[in-house]
Amino acid sequence: xxxxxxxxxxPDRLPAGQPAGPRLxxxxxxxxxxxxxxRLLDAGHPLTVFSRRRESADELVARGAAWAASPADVAxxxxxxxxxxxxxxxxxxVVYGDRGALAGGRPGLILVDHTTSSPExxxxxxxxAGRLGIAxxxxxxxxxxxxxxxxxxxxxxxxxxxxxxxxxxxWRAVAKTVVACGGPGAGQQTKLTNQIAIASGMxxxxxxxxxxxxxxLDVDATLQAIAGGAAxxxxxxxxxxxILAGDFAPGFLVAHFVxxxxxxxxxxxxxxxxxxxxxxxxxxxxxxxxxxHERLGTQALVLALARLSGVEPPRGRAAASAGTxxxxxxxxx
Length: 333
Prior knowledge:
333 residues; alpha/beta; Rossmann fold; 2 domains; six-stranded parallel β-sheet; 53% helix; disordered N terminus
């Protein structure tokens, strides 16, 4: 089932002086988490935050969020707790244990994990939370840093329908689309499906721009031409310009994408399913990470592909005139 925001029912920003609804907690303030939490603050929701690095949450605290000393303290002061961390091990750390969210939670709490994580772990957490009277949703997102900043993410939700409906007013601040994918773990399985589709597409985006550059085309004009046709994709339209600008800052980290692809490959091995495109993408991105680029954005794959042929990465007119190409070429070697 697909649901879209009904702005007539619940506004994106709550009127001044009116109750702000449930108390919200947020755990994890990286690139995506900080932007999403910020949009909840902007919408008027009371928010308590925790991050392993206090300084990464300083901006949110300055804007009105309360700081908590642990995930358990977040849960004690919230009706809905959102988690957005890096890896399944991080999810375990912030959910379980004496300082974890489940330890601070009480019956009626809703725990929402936005991390792209293991489907098996999502099922496990849902069961553990249920024994405590806590609802758990696995709700990974797609849309990258742009979607997080603009509130246009897609949320893929696995778990209890009543809990999902209770959280939907909050998601209106961060998402364009919310999709109910099934029971516990189904949100994670859907996100892994999403990452499989992106993986081969990123290879195609980078190879196409590299080819255009090497045959002497005006790569800016070429990108404009192909992005509006059958070759068009989110990656081509949003990451293609970054590639041509020599901008490899992370909207989504290479290290996290490698993690996601390995989670998908783990599921494939469990099912004896062979996906050669995914296998190739994981190998290329793993090589990129081994070259020291694991903290760059996924568009940096073009650096590894350029290196394979011993050529410079493609660069647009603006990057060429600014001399950006020298730094990107050096990074590719």
